[in-house]
Design brief:
20 strands; binds zinc ion; globular
Length: about 500
């Protein structure tokens, strides 16, 4: 008899320092699919849900997906949004006459008005609906904050092994395979978790820099998986831009039955994480250094890529910082392109004026001028427009992901092409420029609002990539933020002994 599997995706990476709450409308504007709409949407994609669908075909499962929800990282999730998404999942589980297994694609850093550990709450409700015996396999982002409650209510947890994340599909297939082995009675998963008092570690999960601590940790994890009885070793660097009790890097080991070696492996990897906590394999540069590099760029050579690390919508920042763009414009840098400034009013102004029109704008600097800079007041020519800003990722990061800038425009400001959006989006893919008629490879300087994800698609077209600490909501300097719920002492906020 075919196994009956329920799958779902509910993903949010919550930046607890972002002042704008995330509502259900926010999810709806990015992705909120229900029931029969989900499988056709994801069939054939290189994402976790695409992998769940392919695994169902391979293993002869029947598959139902009650909900698939995603919103760009942003502020604390409203209770009503969380209840609505959880309700779709839990109701979908309760109405099944039989369930053999559950597959969930989560991010693992969701924070709601009532639940600091929203995934722990979600998994507890899933467990309540299906009972103690149905196995639950979960995929996470390596920037997940993994909690004991999540471990208690799931059976298998496995994270992406790349950052920039290019293995969504492989991770989905791995979770499905481990679930299959469990349902066939060949694996009896038991998970153990380890952590240290640190907000950051494993080099922020970076795998794009050779020789970095994350690559070394992953190598050790793969070696551990070759030991008998060890099914999966998963490493999370954590997401430190929120203020919850269980924050920071973790290792979770899944063994076949109770296996003391599991905890030893987890602890030894966390010892490594503690020892390498200060290693930052891709040091950030200042705005002044970025501007100097832009001025020094040789015309006709591949572009200089600048990552606006401090204002990364992919880490929950507002996307409206003007600090880097202002400095580049003031320095007279030309033939540049930037994606994207979140500014719905200016986008609408450009749409109303039409292509070719010159408009006077007060661009960006909307949410928090102290943190993100003042609006840029200038005249701009409307280069191109899009009513929807719809984009499908074609590069290596999240291949096949569908995103939307909403009604949007590309403005020309003194020879600098600036994409202006009405939905705040992280920049990961060359298509995010191309839909506006811009080929980033032909520019001298390309600015992308992103922390790490841009390295996959943009490094290959550039001469050099520099990531710039522009001091926004995703600044690398955690001492700029106020933490009240994190147990103290904790690194790097407090003085700590060499061993913990
Ligand atoms: Zn991530």
């Amino acid at each position: 008899m075919a196994k009956h599997i329920i799958a779902a995706k509910i993903k949010h990476e919550t930046n607890g320092f972002n002042r704008v709450p995330t509502t259900l409308e926010h999810f709806r504007s990015h992705e909120l699919l229900v029931g029969d709409a989900v499988i056709p949407y994801y069939q054939g994609t290189r994402l976790e849900m695409g992998a769940f669908i392919d695994s169902a075909a391979e293993f002869g499962w029947t598959l139902q997906v009650p909900v698939s929800a995603f919103a760009n990282p942003s502020g604390v999730v409203a209770d009503a949004a969380f209840e609505s998404m959880c309700g779709l999942l839990v109701d979908g589980l309760r109405m099944q006459p039989r369930i053999d297994g559950v597959l969930l694609a989560l991010h693992g850093a969701m924070f709601t008005e009532s639940h600091g550990d929203a995934e722990g709450e979600l998994l507890a409700r899933v467990r309540g609906a299906i009972g103690p015996d149905v196995p639950v396999a979960v995929t996470l982002d390596p920037h997940a904050n993994l909690t004991q409650r999540m471990v208690d209510h799931a059976n298998i947890i496995t994270s992406f092994r790349t950052s920039p994340h290019t293995d969504h599909y492989e991770t989905g297939r791995r979770a499905a395979w481990l679930l299959h082995e469990t349902m066939e009675g060949r694996l009896h998963p038991r998970m153990v978790l380890a952590r240290r008092p640190q907000l950051q570690g494993f080099d922020g999960a970076r795998t794009y820099v050779q020789g970095g601590p994350m690559l070394k940790a992953l190598e050790l994890a793969r070696a551990a998986e070759r030991e008998p009885g060890v099914a999966c070793v998963s490493i999370q660097a954590g997401f430190s831009r929120c203020d919850i009790a269980e924050l920071g890097p973790t290792v979770v080991v899944t063994t076949d039955g109770v296996e003391p070696r599991g905890q030893q492996i987890a602890e030894s990897l966390m010892d490594f994480c503690w020892k390498t906590r200060a290693v930052y394999s891709d040091p950030l540069v200042s705005i002044a250094q970025a501007v100097a590099a832009a001025i020094a760029h040789t015309p006709g050579t591949p572009p200089l890529i600048l990552g606006d690390y401090g204002d990364a919508p992919g880490g929950g920042s507002y996307g409206d910082s003007t600090r880097l763009l202002s400095a580049l414009l003031d320095a007279g840098v030309r033939n540049g392109a930037l994606a994207a400034i979140y500014d719905p009013v200016t986008a609408q102004q450009a749409l109303q004026a039409g292509v070719g029109a010159t408009i006077h704008v007060a661009l960006g600097g909307i949410s928090d001028t102290g943190l993100m800079g003042e609006p840029i007041r200038t005249s701009a020519r409307v280069r191109s427009l899009s009513d929807t800003g719809d984009v499908v990722f074609k590069g290596p990061y999240g291949t096949g992901s569908r995103r939307s800038f909403g009604p949007s425009a590309c403005l020309d400001i003194d020879g600098f092409a600036v994409i202006v959006s009405s939905r705040n989006l992280g920049i990961y893919d060359l298509e995010q420029f191309r839909i506006y008629g811009i080929d980033p490879a032909q520019c001298a300087v390309v600015v992308v609002k992103c922390m790490q994800g841009h390295h996959a698609a943009f490094d290959p077209i550039g001469s050099k990539t520099l990531d710039v600490d522009t001091g926004g909501l995703t600044s690398a300097d955690l001492t700029r933020f106020t933490f009240s719920r994190v147990p103290r002492p904790v690194w790097p906020l407090d003085a700590m002994p060499d061993t913990v």
